[in-house]
Design goal:
about 200 residues; alpha/beta; Rossmann fold; five-stranded parallel sheet; 8 helices
């Protein structure tokens, strides 16, 4: 399978970093993300392979995601797991977009490694405005990823065309040599015939 086909077949995934205590706020976030054409990854939905080490499974999911959406409530800000997920994502050069409640926004320590980065304000009591901004961001991000995919596919096609042109040139060169050998053999045969004639 070509690189372009792999990219085309890959489903764009967003990893959702959150506290399990915030499930009711996370559900509408996932719905918005999936309505925009992404797959929302929640660790609690991926427990089919019991017995696997959870941390490596989460790391693999972050690596497989095009970005991370962090739902930063007070519960999430106090969660060591959420902090580790965000730290690992940043270490993998993943884009992290945060939905931040006002209580967390007022406390730079609660923002942790996301302190100083842009975020989307998120009001738990009236989440609609934050969800609309998230939808806008996800749609823009989806268009960017589609453009990147298109550019990658064009690069693959250009590479394939270059390889094909090189192969044609090599075949042409081999054909030219074969033609020269035929002409030489023909000339040699004529010379031999002329030499034998009385």
């Amino acid at each position: 399978m070509s690189f372009g086909a792999e990219l085309e077949d890959a489903e764009m995934q967003l990893f959702i970093s959150h506290s399990s205590k915030d499930r009711e706020w996370v559900e509408p976030v996932c719905k918005r993300i999936e309505a925009s054409g992404f797959r929302a990854y929640l660790a609690e939905y991926d427990l089919a392979g019991l017995g696997h080490e959870l941390s490596s499974k989460i790391q693999d999911a972050i690596k497989a995601s095009v970005a991370v959406v962090a739902v930063l409530t007070e519960n999430a800000a106090g969660s060591a797991i959420v902090r580790e997920e965000i730290g690992f994502a940043l270490g993998q050069d993943k884009l992290v977009i945060a939905l931040v409640t006002s209580a967390v926004a007022q406390n730079p320590a609660a923002l942790g490694m996301l302190n100083g980065r842009e975020y989307i304000p998120f009001d738990i009591d009236e989440p609609q405005e934050g969800l609309v901004k998230l939808t806008d961001w996800v749609n823009i991000f989806a268009r960017q990823k589609q453009q990147e995919l298109h550019q990658a596919q064009l690069a693959v096609q250009r590479s394939q065309m270059q390889a094909m042109n090189q192969t044609i040139a090599q075949l042409q060169q081999q054909n030219d040599i074969a033609m020269l050998l035929l002409v030489f053999a023909g000339a040699l045969a004529v010379t031999v015939l002329v030499a034998k004639s009385p």
